[in-house]
Amino acid sequence: MKANRAVHSVTTMSRVLGVSAGGFYAWCGRPTSRRAQDDDTVLAQIRRFHQRARGTYGAPRIHRDLRAAGVRVGRKRVARLMKFKNIRQFTNRLKDILTLSGELFQRLMRELPESGDVSSERK
To answer: pTM of the full predicted structure?
Structure first.
């Protein structure tokens, strides 16, 4: 609701969502929860470790590094935060590039010499 206040009135959004407008305003006035503050702190550390690893570490390795640094955090929490902020490991998937689709494979097989020797030149 907070993001759409410029587009729609709070009263209209409250009616459509089935919540009270007073509850929304009360929520806006509350301070950030301790859990959300801790998540922000852990997320900053996750980003630091992820950048240090040049984006190649996923949640298990980031969790291992955080634990080694003395940060008490669960593996699933690290995975949840990374997923929520779209922090993903970069993988060079050569396997996916080299896998041939059925049609391409058939075409390449037709172009091979009949002897099956791929090292010989075609005449």
So the answer is: 0.60
